[in-house]
Structure formats: C-alpha cells, structure tokens
Amino acid sequence: MNCKREHDDDARVNAEGFESDPKRQKWNGHSSPSSSPPPPASEGSLLPGFNYGDEDDEDNQRRPPVDGYRGDGGDNQRDIKSGAEVEEEEEDDDDDDLEQGLYRRSREIEVRRDCPYLDAVNRQVLDFDFEKFCSLSLSNLNVYACLVCGKYYQGRGKKSHAYTHSLEAGHHVYINLRTEKVYCLPDGYEISDPSLDDIRHVLNPRFTEEQVEQIDKNKQWSRALDGSDYLPGMVGLNNIKETDFVNVTIQSLMRVTPLRNFFLIPKNYQHCKSPLVHRFGELTRKIWHARNFKGQVSPHEFLQAVMKASKKRFRIGAQSDPVEFMSWLLNTLHADLRTSKKDSSIIYECFQGELEVVKEIPKKGIEKKEIGDDQNTDVVTENNGIVKERYKMPFLMLGLDLPPPPLFKDVMEKNIIPQVPLFNILKKFDGETVTEVVRPRIARMRYRVTRLPQYLILHMQRFTKNNFFVEKNPTLVNFPVKNLELKDYIPLSTPKENERLRSKYDLIANIVHDGKPGEGSYRVFVQRKSEELWYEMQDLHVSETLPQMVALSETYMQIYEQQQ
Predict the structure, then answer these.
(1) 238 and 256 co-located in one domain
(2) What is the rounded CA–CA span in Å between residue 490 and residue 503?
(3) Which SMART domains match (predicted)?
(4) Average pLDDT, stretch 369-392?
C-alpha cells in the first residue's frame, strides 16, 4: 500500500519536475528525505522563483515553504484523481493561504536602534557624486552603498553582491541610495539611528523655503571632514577631463537667484521627467549645501545626463565652447520644464528679452514666398529695389562684435592689444548701427532692444573660424562692475504708466578664456551677494579677488543682474 501511494504521488509531477498545482511549486529545505534539492546556481540555471534584487520587492515572487516538491521526475504523467484526493487538495490550499499569511508577517523587517557595527562607518570615504550603479553588476536597481568602504553594491538578498561583500569583507552597514534606509547585513535588520542623518543629508541635500530665503544672508563658513573650510555656494567643481566649459557655466548660473531658488526645492519640478532637470537640481543643492563632507563637488551625474541629452555634442574629454553650452542648456531646460507649448518657464522668466530687427535685402535673389514669412513682419518695398523687413524676436543672450586687432607691430616690435569700452560694442543694438551678414543671404541688419530681461547675458565673439584655423581676438573690453546704465547707450521703449524703467545692471558673473584658441582653459569671476565680495573660480581652485581685477581679463561671457 505504501509503495502504491508513493507511486501515485510521483505520478502527479509533470515533465519539468514540478507539481501541477502552482502553489506547490517551491522546494522546501525541510521536506522529506526522498525529495532532492534544486540544481545548484553554479550549473548555469537560475533558482526557480529566486529574485536577485532587493528583499523588499520579493513579495510577489516568493512563496511560503510547502512540502511536496520532488525533483526525481516520476512518470512524467498525471493520474486521474479521485474525489477524495480533490477534497484533500482543497484543504491543503486553505492551509497554504494561512501559512502564507503567517510567512509574510514573519518577513516584516526588524527595526533596531542599537547596532554594534555603527562605529565602523567611515564618513571620509563616502562620495555620493558618482552614478548610482553597482560596482560589480553595473545595474542601477536596488543599489546600496557600503558605509565602511564607500563602494556601491546591488541588492540585500542572500545571493546579492552586498550580502556577499558583508560576509567576505566584514562590512555590515549599508544605505539604500534611493530610499535612504540603512540596514545591517548579513543580519538583515533596519537601523534607526539619528547619528546617520548627516549621511542622508549628504546623499540627498534638502532645503526648506525659509532656508532658501535666508541663503544669501549667510556669511558663515562650513567645515569639511578633512578640516578644510569652504563657503556654501562657492565650492570648487571637479574637472573630470576637459570639462571646465561646463564648470564655468554652472558656477555662473548659480549666481542667478530665482533660478537657483527654483532648483533648490525639488517639488517645483517634480512633474518633469527629464533626467537633465533632476541632475541639474541635484547639483544645485549639493553646491549650496552647508553640511557637505568635502569642500568640492563632482558634476559626474550631471555630465552623464548632458552627454545623453545632447547626443554627445558635449561630452567628457572634449573641450567645447561655454557660449554654445549655455545656449543649449538654457533652451533644453526650458523645453523640459514647460508643460505645454504656450507655457513659460523659470528660464524664460530670468533671461528672455525681446529685439526688434530691421532687415534690408536686395530684391533680386529673393523669392516672393520668402518675403514676410513671419507673422510679425511688416514688409516695406523701397523704390531702389531693397526689401525692408521689420519683426520682433525673443533672445536669451546678446552677441557683441569686437573690433579687429591691428595687423602690424609697433615700434617696439610688439603687437598692441587694443582696448574697447563695452558701450562702444553695445551700439550694435541701438537701432541705427548697421550689421552686415552674409548667411543665409547678404543683408543689412539693424537691431534694437525692446524689452530687457531680468538677467542679461552678453558674449563677446572672440573666435573667428576661417578655412584653415580658428583665430582669437585679444581685444580687452572695459566694462563697469556696478551700475551699467543701458538707457544712455541703447534707446529703450518707454514703460507703461505703472511701471518703472529698469535699465541699470550689476555684474554677477564673468567668464574668461586663457590661452590659444581651441586649447586654453576657462575660469570665472563670481560675486558672493552676502558680502559683495568677488571670487575667482577655476575648477577646484577658489580664491578671493579684487573687483578691479575682474575687468583686466579677456572676458568671453558675462551675466548682469537688473537692479530692482
């Protein structure tokens, strides 16, 4: 009888070695001796139902242990079951459901305040600036940082890399980089200890609206773990490889108060799905965070997002133009932040102004359909065969033309470096000065600023490219650091009755290029508002400087703030 019953049990096993009832398809380590263990992982087959990720996500995959798995295969067929056997299986199903509820309750993670391994946490090696990828599997799912050695590992389950590392290296404290929960491995309990809050703040800096309002009044220095002092907002950025053009652009934009305040609070852009927007916000919060473990920030994650969004137009290891990068970054952030085509964004609120353009084109060589394509164009055809188009266009930055340098050397056999006042080259936008262009066709252009932005970006067109090489114009531009009054040099439209004409600007950032064209390096002078001091920043080097020194360099791009 016993033999016959064992044969019937074996007959209910299908060809793959599992019982036909799905609730019984798990092997139980405590089953009868006749059941064989599952095949080892080393043979290349994955354990059935095993999740290689985080144990928190295993509720749907794991089942409570159920006796009855047999790996010997049996007869690979099913016998017809009697009514008594069906009733017996239904009772077993009820037992399984009860067992599963008890099993899930026992799976709840224990939370403990006392962990004996907390003294092993080494804050000196923690660096959360790099991408959140497992150092072994290169996966970004369920990544934990070892708080003893600083390395990233995946998962918390018994076959995961973090679990293996905890056994091999004896490092027991790990933080989930997404949820910020801290666990002790291999024990598996969660650690609840307020002494770890400083690590959570470095992993994900956070600001309240009150802190954001007070940030420009803060004159206090912060101290890093190595004992060095740094100013929040004035931290150096790591030059990963020829990425100084990104660093100077970021440092300049950090001085634009409304833009900085917007990105310091993540709920302002939580609707946005763009990785570039979130990485830029994360970098902004790290630069202005007062509790960093070190006095510099590495923009590694932001650069990865830039490479992906720009399709490697801007990438690590290739020098690029900060003017091109600034233009691309502002337009991309605006496109990602707005919810519909009609919406504005914080980018346009800060930087967008308006120009009136008058274009004069010889009538021959122009097709009829090209005349007045723009809805805002007012076309006037003059008698002498010149078509005049007048239209308005928005701008985010203004390009200024430098006078050509002298061709010949002076008596001392040296080239004289010419100097030009900023007001002279601003006359391009007075509505009367003619600028001749050859692309897309020969035309004479006149520009007039009709609306000034809150933050005005000017760039000096120093580099000219011909068929053979790139030339750099060394002309020095003389400009005021404070009280740039534009209405004296540019005719501005009269404001409305209730509005006041705001045409006075103060310099807040000045980007400089040193060296030969195509090579060289970029540095930036920025102003710290709390003390109105000027700092020179080149990658990791930050030093205080005099306002008089700002105007002595070959300026390339400037940001001016409108006086309120």
Answers:
(1) yes
(2) 10
(3) ZnF_UBP (SM00290)
(4) 65
